[in-house]
TrEMBL record:
This is Uncharacterized protein. Residues 223-237 have a biased composition (Pro residues). The chain crosses the membrane at residues 57-80, 86-106, 113-130, 136-156, 177-196. Keywords: Membrane, Transmembrane, Transmembrane helix. It comes from Catellatospora coxensis.
Length: 269
């Protein structure tokens, strides 16, 4: 019957679609697990177990994820800046990155305050851009602040590293760790932005808010950063002579003649 064949064909299509979805989800889960393990390994290797450096790694990764999500949001924004405006914004950001890096290198404490204030301001501005879409000028300003923020983080990371740490290796791992977080945020924003245009900007605002909270827990440069707890040394073994009790002065120990070995030797003689 034609109706029965049509139902069988429809059922086959539904079953194949479900199998494809299950395979896609399972592979996505495997890929997410692999990315998570890779990111954690890079974080541990780069920070060397120093808690302050690991916090800056997390902060840098969150900010890069926010910035890439912001750039992806420009593709779906109604009032996105054009190519000329983006090029101008990147040029201004490059000019601002040089004095910002020098400021943090000369005054690390000021750099910590600069990071926190800039993250709060960028989070509020991104939230306004996602809510009201005021125009391309605000988005261009947000793009211009990307490069200075990255430079400030990398310079402060250099100041937080221990003296015996490999600087270029730590910086390279920090960029790798941040690239993984940015890749996940960017791809997710690109896919969801096709259905919800404001999603990438909301995600960027959320990441910047989290980064502002992480900036409050950064250690002071130059101070010993809290690291992993050192294992307690094992208790010293006592020697047999130390375990022997000493006889206090003024006391006499009574020893029966039956227990005196010198008496036995006298009898044998």
């Amino acid at each position: 019957m034609p109706l029965l064949r049509a139902l069988q064909t429809f059922a086959d299509v539904v079953v194949r679609t479900i199998r494809v979805l299950i395979a896609t989800v399972s592979r996505s889960v495997v890929g997410i697990r692999w990315l998570t393990r890779t990111a954690l390994r890079i974080r541990v290797q780069g920070s060397g177990g120093v808690t302050g450096v690991a916090r800056l790694y997390d902060l840098y990764a969150v900010v890069v994820a926010a910035d890439l999500s912001l750039l992806v949001g420009l593709a779906w924004a109604a009032a996105a800046p054009g190519r000329l405006e983006l090029a101008l914004a990147l040029g201004v950001g490059l000019l601002l990155a040089v004095p910002a890096g020098l400021l943090v290198s000369g005054a690390p404490a000021t750099g910590r305050a600069l990071i926190g204030l800039s993250l709060v301001g960028r989070a509020v501005a991104t939230l306004l851009a996602a809510q009201w879409q005021p125009g391309w000028i605000l988005l261009a300003v947000l793009v211009a602040l990307i490069l200075p923020q990255w430079v400030v983080h990398l310079v402060l990371l250099r100041r937080l590293l221990p003296r015996d740490a490999h600087v270029f290796g730590a910086l390279w791992r920090a960029m790798q760790y941040a690239a993984i977080a940015g890749l996940v945020a960017g791809v997710t924003g690109l896919v969801i932005g096709a259905f919800v245009a404001g999603w990438p900007l909301w995600a960027a605002a959320l990441c910047l808010s989290v980064g502002a909270l992480l900036a409050l827990r950064l250690p002071a440069p130059g101070a010993p950063a809290p690291g992993p707890a050192q294992p307690a040394p094992p208790p010293a073994k006592r020697l047999p002579q130390q375990e022997q009790r000493t006889i206090p002065e003024g006391f006499h120990v009574y020893r029966p003649s039956s227990l005196d070995p010198s008496a036995d030797e006298g009898k044998k003689k």
